[in-house]
Amino acid sequence: MFGLEKSAGQQKPGRSGGLPKMASVGDFNVLSSSIPATKVELSVSCRNLLDRDTFSKSDPICVLYTQAIGNKEWREFGRTEVIDNTLNPDFVRKFIMDYFFEERENLRFDFYDVDSKSPNLSKHDFLGQMFCTLGEIVGSQGSRLEKSIVGIPGKKCGTVIVTAEELGCCRDSVLMQFCANKLDKKDFFGKSDPFLVFLRSNEDGSFTICHKTEVVKNTLNPVWQAFKISVRALCNGDYDRTIKVEVYDWDRDGSHDFIGEFTTSYRELSRGQSQFNVYEVINPKKKGKKKKYINSGTVTLLSFLIETEVSFLDYIKGGTQINFTVAIDFTASNGNPSQPTSLHYMNPYQLNAYGMALKAVGEIIQDYDSDKMFPALGFGARLPPDGRVSHEFALNGNPQNPYCHGIDGVMEAYYRSLKSVQLYGPTNFAPVINHVARYAASVKDGSQYFVLLIITDGVISDMAQTKESIVNASKFPMSIIIVGVGPAEFDAMEELDGDVVRISSRGKFAERDIVQFVPFRDYIDRSGNHVLSMARLAKDVLAEIPEQFLSYMRVRGIKPLPAPPPYTPPIHVLQTQI
User: Fold this and answer.
1) Are residues 139 and 278 in the same domain?
2) Range of the structural domain that residue 285 is part of
3) Fewest Cβ atoms nearer than 10 Å: which of 111, 141, 434, 451?
4) Does some domain include residue 15?
């Protein structure tokens, strides 16, 4: 097969059957706090590709590249198969990628007409390319992105359709219950105090612990409580991977006595309660020593129930829109915008901290908003013509329609405002929070979710009112991100974040945690690489959004809408594949 034999380190041996390397989630440890990315499968189809062959149609292949964050270098991720003699290929080979909501993953799809067996792409005819982000594909209606292929001046290169499908094994959980019979007696005065330890095997033959049951005291015939575990934690989504179960007798001093062990797999367990799921517990040492040794008891699976967790992507695919609003602090403590010391300094050569925070967060969120129209507000300034102080004004100067087109439109309105308003005070958050909460309160059916980004230099004047606004807003489909810029002490902001102590007002606690605060100075890259600073900032402030989003949907009992019907390509001539 062209391009797979020697494609520069893209091989991954073993179960992948020699396909090019697919992105892998490192070894997921169920006991660690990091949540693994979900995996999405990308399918690629093209329509009306350029015809580069004289006597027949092109023989296309698609090559996917991903871009490193720091140096912007493109790296080959993988290749599809070649399809002979067609301008409308539906490639069979998929690209499997890790997906993080909070990261911007730039993608490039290159298309070639294959003329020989050589894996070297320069030996083949270039048919064009398409650039997008993974978020753009996932955020499109039905997670299906259709875009023109570009790259050959003066030629129509056709279109590409990329569809993203979340892989199911990432989010299945199983509810299992076990009991045991006639386990070995290990305690001198009583019976044993047994518990089970589950370990999944790794590629290198080692084992990783993924679950421990509770201890059942003083019995050789324990029944353990049912427990829930994700399929990814149990077997990394590989149904035939060995799962080892060890049986111990609990001792107070921690020197638990080994009773025995057995092995199974997800596929075996999934048969449920049956004769196949009664396991002999074997102690290898005893077995080696005693000729008449049969076993150290048996463990039986009592029940096995698969539960599919609904994910953030299910809602996005079902059409839920994320509405992004930005609110910028125009108080005098930021300093005069014409002075280089000001946090609002309009440097013609680089973004100021406000611009960087806005772009970092906005460029990711905009992929999930179909109309790309964002309300942009300011607070703490005196407005022309009469100099009245406002804590909720439209950056574009139009209070009836504060929407700006795209993040670039928001940036433009921000720079225009700096030239027309007078920085003043005080720093009041409550009006902009209430502004977004009014919209969020009117859409409680799960079709929309609101994210408010507040960028501020810090010292808040209306703490009591802001707390009340947040407690009130926690009932609505919204999240608040606060980015603190400049050198101020941000102690008050930490209190609003609510990660340590849930925020309350007048004795009422917030229904859920909806605020994420970060100080921008923690992300300044010492080498001056602003791209890295912005990527790190976006990663941290957006990481909590999917869980906050899901917590709202769960509390309200809102299920994702079904995705629109999948795209069915028009039927055309049967293709041969080499």
Assistant:
1) no
2) 172-308
3) 141
4) no
Of 473, 484, 474, 385, the C-alpha closest to 427 is 484
Please write down the HEC assignment for all residues of 434-472: HHHHHHHHCCCCCCEEEEEEEEECCCCCCHHHHHHHHHH
Contact 150, 130 (CB under 8 A): yes
Q: Is residue 578 domain-resident? A: no
User: Do 378 and 420 meet the contact criterion of CB atoms below 8 Å apart?
Assistant: no
Same domain, residue pair 164 and 176: no
Give a yes or no: residue 573 inside a domain: no
Is 7 in contact with 76 (CB distance < 8 Å)?
yes
Confidence category of residue 570, pLDDT binned at 50, 70, 90: low
C-alpha distances in Å from residue 110, one per residue of 57, 72, 117, 125, 577: 18, 17, 18, 11, 19
Q: Are 220 and 183 spatial neighbours (Cβ–Cβ below 8 Å)?
A: yes
More confident residue, 576 or 243: 243
Residues 76-86: tens digit of each pLDDT: 999 999 998 89
Yes or no: say if 420 and 397 are a contact pair by the CB < 8 Å rule.
Answer: yes
Do both 245 and 373 map to the same domain? no
Euclidean distance between CA atoms 247 and 299, whole angstroms: 9
- Statement to judge: residues 464 and 490 lie in one domain: yes
Q: What is the DSSP string of 65-108?
A: EEE-TTT--EEEEEE---BSS-SS-B--S-EEEEE-TTS--EEE
Give the list of residues 6+ apart from residue 378 with CB closer than 8 angstroms, or none.
Answer: 327, 328, 329, 330, 390, 393, 394, 395, 417, 421
pTM of the model: 0.71
Terminus-to-terminus CA distance in the chain, angstroms?
6
Instruction: Give the H/E segment covering residue 422.
Output: strand 422-423
Q: Which residue has the higher pLDDT, 436 or 569?
A: 436
Same domain, 459 and 541: yes
Listed in sequence order, the residues at least 6 apart from 397 whose beta carbon sits closer than 8 Å to its beta carbon are: 413, 416, 417, 420
pLDDT band of 53, cuts 50, 70, 90? confident
Domain end point (choices 282, 308, 334): 308
pLDDT > 50? residue 8 = no
Distance (Å, rounded) from C-alpha 482 to C-alpha 475? 19
Residue 477 contacts residue 320 (beta carbons within 8 Å): no
pLDDT score recorded for residue 186: 82
Provide the CATH number for the domain around residue 218.
Answer: 2.60.40.150
Number of domains the chain is built from = 3
What residues pair up with 90 in beta bridges, in sequence order?
45
Query: Mapped to the 3 state alphabet, what secondary structure does 248-310 carry?
Result: EECCCCCCCEEEEEEEEEHHHHCCCCCHHHEEECECHHHHHHCCCCCCCCEEEEEEEEEEECC
Shared domain for 398 and 263, answered yes or no, is no
Rounded CA separation 417/411 (Å): 10
Residue type present at position 87 = L
Residue 155 lies in a domain: yes
* Alpha carbons 235 and 240: distance in angstroms, whole number: 8
Position 125 scores a pLDDT of 95
Helix (H, G, I), strand (E, B) or coil at 406: helix
The CA distance from 134 to 42, in Å, is 9
